[in-house]
Amino acid sequence: MRALEPWVVQPLETFLAESAARLTLLMTSSGQVVAQHGFSRSLDVMTAAALGAGIVASTDELARLMGGAGFEALVHHGQRQSCMLAAFATPRGRWIGLVVFGPETSVGIVRLFFDQMIGQLAAAAPREQPSAPMLAENFETELDASLKALFGR
Amino acid sequence: MTEDIRALTARMADEPGSLAFLELAEALRRRGQLEAAYKVARGGVSRYPGLADAHDLMARVLSDQGDLAGAFDAWSSALQLDPMRTSALKGIAFLYFRAGDRAAALTHLERALEVDPDDPTIPQAISRLGTEAPAAPVPPPVESRPLPTPVSSAPAARGTQDLFEQLEGGGQGLLLVDGNGLRLGGRLTGADGDAMGDRVAAQLAGVSREAARATRLLGLGSWHSIALESPDAHLVLAQPTSDTVLLASRDPSMPMGRVTLLAERAARAARAWLEVEG
Amino acid sequence: MTATQTSLDRVTRVAGVRGALIVSAADGLVVAEQLMDGVDGQAAAALTGSLVGRLARTAESAGLRPPVFVHLRGEAGSVLAAPGPDDLVLVAVVGPEANLGLARLEMIEAAGRLA
Fold first, then answer.
1. Which range of residues forms the domain containing residue B209?
2. Does the interface ipTM go beyond 0.90?
3. Contact pairs from chain A to chain C, CB under 8 Å
4. Which end of chain B is more exposed for a tag (fewer CB within 10 A), N or C?
5. What is the spatial distance between Cα B219 and Cα B211, in angstroms, rounded to a whole number?
6. B72: domain CATH number?
């Protein structure tokens, strides 16, 4: 398990231990990765983050069209593994969680401990720091540095 | 034979508390009507729990039905009530022989021979085990002699042979498991005599953790026990220490409350043993 | 009143029962519930579904048929579970003073009628 922000580590470790999730990705609503567990390639992380953010954005729009406030979580059941996508509020803005799990656990357990993690993240987050304006040349460097941190290199 | 059964059934109907259940169940068993024999024997055991004959009878019925674990428990109960009961000693010897444990079978047959040197079937059984029958020993002194410690048919950890020895049924149907799912003591055999303790122990590894999590998150404190009713057995799980689990398994004819008491006693024995061995 | 609600009613009327719910065991999700304040249905469904599944696997490894009743006893109360058909489980959260014998009977009967 790797995280860019140290305060994310404990809540995420607790979630992983309780839920038995196989893969987990925490990202901002724009797809910037905050923490990951279980991925072996940076390309997979980037792809999953982009796709996950896109799916949540699409379903948000769908909910808006239906006159609702948005979906709490999306669960896709597969034969060998399933996937949950959930957007949630944090002191650092709106984040998205992508969790892949197998038959050794259940969607009920995953959701139960995901909700607990949200509460723990909210309690652990430091006060909002003013962010420096993002320059194009900084972006790639930052992304590269983030990926290296997420893969322990 | 049919007339006997009819007469005995009529007698039971007139006097439900009669000891005629012993003859009736035995007659039904010999005719192969095992289900009916079981029902009569079960009624008799519940009405006369202190009668060794009743437990001996139940053991024979269960043995014929293929419930060897249940038969072992019942013969053990008979022996606890009557330590000199040769039919129970022979029965348990037979079960050990079926399980492939000749040493334990021989131990019990030799004990039976001490109690009843005139029973010709015992030397025959001993010779069948492939060992020469010993010369008829001097009759034992009046004071009761302790039963030899049965040798477990499954490999046991060091010093576990006496872990549950003092309990009803010995270590059969009792399992002590550590936090990694490894068996520390006791044994569990299936109806076909296969040892399944290690397989079950592996499954129990996560049960304690899940139970603790469930009671904690539901505001029920720490967990104390789990009682599980299957059509085939009553199981009780207890927690002798924070990183061990104890399983007690008994025939469903044994009331769950009694299985729970057995589990509690076994947990106390396990705690005492762990303090010495751990 | 549906059969499901009738089943939950009968169980929650037993003294000491703080809540009853019907759970999809494999998913750990609530199908129907009747809970007093303070009983977390989502947690009860997820945790009991998971525990019952694990205990069923334990019974299977011992060569036994699946359980028909489970009683998890804690210091301050118990969780009772009666598996029914189609992977549904009737679950009750009870206090230490609950009439366990009656709760068990009602639950086993009600679980058999779940569909």
1. 174-277
2. yes
3. 33
4. N
5. 12
6. 1.25.40.10
- The pTM assigned to this predicted structure is 0.66
Same domain for B99 and B180?
Answer: no
Is C75 in contact with B222 (Cβ distance < 8 A)?
Answer: yes
Specify whether B16 is located in the same domain as B73.
yes
CATH architecture for the domain at A2-126+137-148: 2-Layer Sandwich (3.30)
Query: Could you identify the residue written with the tokens 């039963």?
Result: B147
Within its chain, how far is the Cα of C18 from the centroid?
Answer: 12
Predicted local confidence at residue A139, as pLDDT: 54
User: For chain C, which domains are there?
Assistant: 3-112 (3.30.450.30)
**Is residue B148 a part of any domain in this protein?**
no
Chain C CB contacts of B213 below 8 Å = 47
Separation between Cα atoms, residue C47 and residue C27, nearest integer Å: 10
Question: End-to-end distance of chain B based on CA atoms, in angstroms?
Answer: 58
Indicate the pairing of strand C69-74 with strand B223-230: antiparallel
- Residue B85 identity (one-letter amino acid): R
What is the distance between the alpha carbons of residues B272 and B104, in angstroms, rounded to a whole number?
26
Instruction: Please identify every stretch of chain C with a pLDDT value under 50, giving residue numbers as ranges.
Output: none
- Chain B: residue whose CA lies nearest to C96: B220
